[in-house]
Amino acid sequence: MELNRRQLLCTGGGIGAAALLTACGAGDTPSPGAAEGSPARPKRGGTLRVGALGRASAITRDPHGTQANESDYLILSLVYDTLTVPGAKPNTLPRLAASWTPSDDLRTWRLTLAEGARFHDGTPVTAEDVAFSLRRLRGTPSGASRLPGIRAGNIKADGRGTVVLVSDYANAELPLLLRLTTFVVRNGTKDGDIGKAPGTGPFRLEWFRGGNARLVRNDGWYGGEVPLDAVEVKIFESPQAMANALLGGQIDLASNVGAVAARTAGKRKDVRVVRRPNDLALPVVMRTAPGSPFADPRVREALRLAVDREAMVRQVLSGYGSVANDILGTGDPGYAKDVPQRVRDLARAGSLLKEAGFDLSRTYELVTTEDVPGLAETATLFATQVREAGVRIKVTKQESAAFWARTWLKGDLYTSYWGTNDSVVFFAGKVLVSESATNESGWKDPGFDAAYRTALATKDPAKRAESLRRVQRIQHDASGYLLWGMADGIDLAAAAVRGLPTLPGYGRVQLERAWLNR
Amino acid sequence: MAEPLTDTAGAAGGPAFRLRRSVGRRVVTVLTVLVHRALLLAVLLAVVFAAVELLPGDAATATAERGESAAGIAGRRALLGLDRPVAERFADWMAGLPTGDLGTSARGEPVAGLLARPFPDTLLLGGLALLVTFLASLALGGWAALRPGGRTDRAVSGGATAVLALPEFVVAVALVLVFAQWLEWLPAVTLAGGDGGPESWRMLVLPVVALAVPQIGWNTRIVRAALADEARAPHVEAAVLDGLPGHRVLLRHVLPGALPAIAAGLATSTGMLLGGAVVVETVFNHPGLGTVLAGAVSDRDGPVIAGVVAVAGAVVTGVLLLADLVRARASGGRP
Lengths: 518, 335
Fold this sequence. Notes:
The complex is a heterodimer of chains A (518) and B (335).
Chain A: H1 5-11, H2 18-21, E1 47-53, H3 70-79, E2 84-86, E3 92-94, E4 97-102, E5 108-113, H4 127-138, H5 143-146, E6 155-158, E7 162-166, H6 174-177, E8 203-209, E9 212-217, E10 230-236, H7 239-247, E11 253-254, H8 259-265, E12 271-281, E13 284-286, H9 297-306, H10 309-316, E14 321-323, H11 346-356, E15 363-368, H12 375-387, E16 392-397, H13 400-407, E17 413-415, H14 424-432, H15 446-457, H16 461-478, E18 481-482, E19 485-494, E20 497-498, E21 515-516
Chain B: H1 2-12, H2 15-54, H3 59-62, H4 70-79, H5 86-96, H6 111-116, H7 118-146, H8 151-164, H9 168-182, H10 202-231, H11 234-241, H12 246-284, H13 289-298, H14 302-330
Helix pairs in contact in B: 2-5, 2-14, 7-8, 7-10, 7-12, 8-10, 9-10, 9-12, 10-12, 11-12, 12-13, 12-14, 13-14
């Protein structure tokens, strides 16, 4: 038998090729209906035991509640379906909404529900159920940021199988916004019954207790065949304990366990490191508003030129990541790869600082917190690196709640992190456009705002792509962000686990195609 | 029916009357102690509320989703009653305490319900650790006390001093490394099953040992010292001179007198065990109060933190009272 390229790559794979390895199945006969990333024919059966991070005090059963726990979100997304789901290319794929069509002004969107979608108790899903769920979501405290521009009154059912959403403004990216927490429950579900509300997802809830749950296959799932018999989700407070459980064979998958665990477990033959690129952005935010020492664009440019991005990826992320180019949304299929990569240039950084009259005698404070691994390390290494350009920076670590209350959105220089990184437009609307409530750097750039609005309001794909490029170019040149790199999402899996998701962020919960090669 | 009995006893002035009076006095003492401890606990809870207030940020911001609007956060702040003075919130919370109402968490869950599941798990862990501590420190302390100054004594006392200074965290990590990862004898973490408790008893072994080791160190020293003190008592000397075998002297003559000190030592360990459980539960992923507490602190969730303190405080108070009773009984009413 001839070795093809894929097999060659697979046999030669070390830790570095782990992401690739997930694409290498046991057999080499691609089944026609198999999902991307699992070319081998999945074996049916078995229970997958998954560890996911979460805190006992933050457990929620509400699909539209504040899901601070990854474990809760995982359980919810296996039991309930969202209207759309994250994908690789395009970044939005159909789920409970099988298709969608916008009006010419991109304000009215008609979503057609999937054929044969049923709740776990057998009742069919209707447009009223979907409209009810979306209105319920919109009614939560963070509803306005989850369904931006769509007021509850503008969510309507049209017949049994169509839902109509009317946005306050033209929004070409509306289906993208429906990927998160648009979980559908039955019309009229009361808040008190929400924990028992049947879903439509690939798995049915068998039991839930204290953040742990057992889910069994939904045989009649409209989305296709689900190979696993069951998924057991175990809540873990610390990634270390989760890694220990995986190494000890107590779980089969440690979801989002992080680089530290990967470094120690990478040597083991019976453990696979799954890398999901573009998972986490760890930018340094420089305040652009007047009064900030970084208000002058030349100063921000100088700092962006002063960092050694390769070294940051190597040291902060243990190599589990990639260099970025100060543009947020690196996983977007429309990411501007043609914008030249910014590289370290201390000489130019120095002359820019001089030109701008930046006060090098002062010591500037960089505020950080330890919410996620790599955040505080980013700050420390950044301070060391820019010292070589003559900028003195003192790192201040704040406790998480203090950081969010006092520094976030207010500080002159601080670290931030974001998880949904597969959409340039998402970020532009969230943190870059002037009027955003979470404009982290206080950036106001009329040219950028115009480009963003055009991108949202243009139906023609070519013209839209053009304005998206403009959005990215302006951002690259002038924003308040220094995005030096992207951390990989890292899962550890037992050798037998196949068909695992390789998407960043919330894409990690897509376990409906996972199977066990036992 | 009880009246005539008292009368007869009273009339006779016999031992029954004295017994009754001493029982009455003891009940009063117990009640006084209980009231004192309850007041102390109330002060502690007030301090907890004040401390949460002093931490930067509040529950509304700490539990907010990123991107939640300022109006949304303000709305939730009002919903949680965080816009009211802390004294008022504390008074409200305390008012519910006698009825078992521990308030509502920042995420809208009733605190009593939130603690009902993990509390027994922590009690189980702490209780087992206390039992192991008791047995091990008694055995080790007794062994060392058999021949004071001997090799065993020096080894046990030295070892005890060494481990009592070890943080639970270090012990826990070392245990996982050796027994779970190298030898693969025991599971590394506790996984909860469908009933909420650990899936297997084997999962309890390492956390219990990790919790107990520093306490065994502490209590072995107390047992050893208490036995040595008691060994100097005249009646012990008499027993030794009578030629009774060493272990018999130890069990029958030395130990009863040393019990009050041993009980007091164990009682203080209860607090340490509950405190250590916070750390150990995190390392072993044990589904107990510790994990709830850790999350509640970062959520600035006053009612949850106070709820944990209240139930833990109640347990410690109960155990201290028990130790007091043991002491009172052993000392036979002597002060």
